[in-house]
Amino acid sequence: MKKYLSTTDLAVIVLTFIFFAIALFIKGFVHDLLLEAGVLLVSVKIIMMNYKNVVANKEVMKELSEIKKILTETKEKNIENTDSNDDKKHF
Prior knowledge:
This protein is mainly α. The protein has one domain. The N and C termini lie far apart (63 Å).
């Protein structure tokens, strides 16, 4: 879980649920409870968005690493080809 959620995210989750539980016991099942439930859902949505961003960023970084590897290999092959062509010109 630490892989995708930071300590701050976990703290927000815990505090949101604690405040929701406190509001549930203090206010009871009345109209204001719907407001508290809305706040809870907004917090959950923000946390879910953060999770999706982390996953997407890791995928992008993985693809960029693959592109960098391919470019490095291509550059090395071009350097080898250039060196071998230069050697042929001297003979």
